[in-house]
Please model this.
Amino acid sequence: MTNRRVLTALSLLIFLASAKSMLSQEGGPATVVSIDTTHRLAVPSRRHFAGGNMQIMFSGQSYADPKMRTMLAGLDLGWMRFPAGTMDDAWDWRTGQMRPEWIAKFKNEKVELYQRFVFADQVLRGKGGNPLDGYASLLKTLRTGSATSPGSEATHTIGVVNTFTDTPESAAALALEAEKQGLHVDVWELGNEPFYFKDFYPTGADYLKSVEPYAAAIKAAVPSAKVAVYVQRNNEWLESMASYKNRYWDELYWHPYPGAKDAGDVAAKMAFYNEFLADTTNRWVDQDVGKLFGPGMQMEISEYGIGAMRGTQYAAVFLAEFMLRFSSDPHVTQAGMHILVGRQGNGDNAIALTNDHTAELVAAAKAGETVDTTRLDYGFYYTPYGLEMQLVDPVIGTSDAVFPTVVKGGASVSAGTATISAIYAQAFRGADGSNHLLLTNKSGVPQTIQVVMDGKPVHATFHTRSTGSMNPEAENSPQQRDEVKIVSSTFPNAPVVPPYGVMDAVWER
Model:
């Protein structure tokens, strides 16, 4: 680890020292990014497009932790997902705790999950639960656009309804309480990832029939409420859902986690993920799902992640490009990563912990006691994921126009058996009139960008903020929290995107 960090740091310093005079790979021509500002892409409002899953049920901190609140505020979140993912399946919103009789229903279906429920139950009892009013208090401290726009707005919520062990009547009461607490719920998801629980929902149609009473109860309680049902990249599940006659839902929701664990070495894994970005993301939503549910269907993506290379700079590039590709998709209303705040030793999140203190909480629970977690030091720090979110998400969330953007020339990278451009780009106009070009570089070589706007080359000073590394496996850790960091630069006429980089480039017309 030490040698790798030294190599990464030295390589990045060399890049930063020479970037302004570099051309693209091997001295070749720059990548040309053409922006058409005479047309706007017809997409839903992007004010609350970007966010993340607020899953802290089996992590030690509480919603009240002041340092965690500060770290979350730095992400300019458009929304958070509450209360969690799978842990919601045995959680009671009225108490903020797990219910043992609900946990028992999973004992024979998924042993590993059952054990996680038991652990989460102990952690929650040790810290006094995850109460709804605690989440509401946290939400009131967060805003979207606060750091980048004069007109900031409150962070919203994507709500999850426990359709596994709770009741439609409880779902209705939850929707009413969310209104009362000011949670700004954009949509209620009916159950978390039901595809994986065949004892509860054998087919897609069975799932839709089972959760329909929850949708009806929520809408009866809050007529303006929206509900979403879960789609999976599985033809049998999708076709079964499509056969259901009463399409009572407002949106679909999807949680993609492409694997690549058996793809081979690092280069093979990156090629796998590059192919997923180019061939699966928008195509699957627009074509495969669209043909079954119609051209007017809408989808939100409240979790997504990467199966291998978790927590690394390449993974951050993948996550950023995923957001850019869907920011221009008219079918996608919201998208965000999993998880915002993680557990100790898990870099697969935006904010990581040095110590999650779960051992103390479990001990307290066994002794019938609770711990004031706001007095504990968790050692929060941003991972490469959290850094790319600070570059990408506020730009999308404060934009008032998304422009057609085309990439030509420059270096290419492997994507399965084919190749694609190393650069992906998407242009936006901020609510304050600023020009933003968000870029990802999937190669290990700096890439020079020639920006063309409405047919004319842009000759201007580009002010950029970026992350990057010549090592795709670079990651931050408790010992080295800034191996990957945000760097501010200026470039005359042509910005240079770092290797395995994410960049926000701004210029004046």
Remarks:
- The first strand starts at residue 31 and ends at 35.
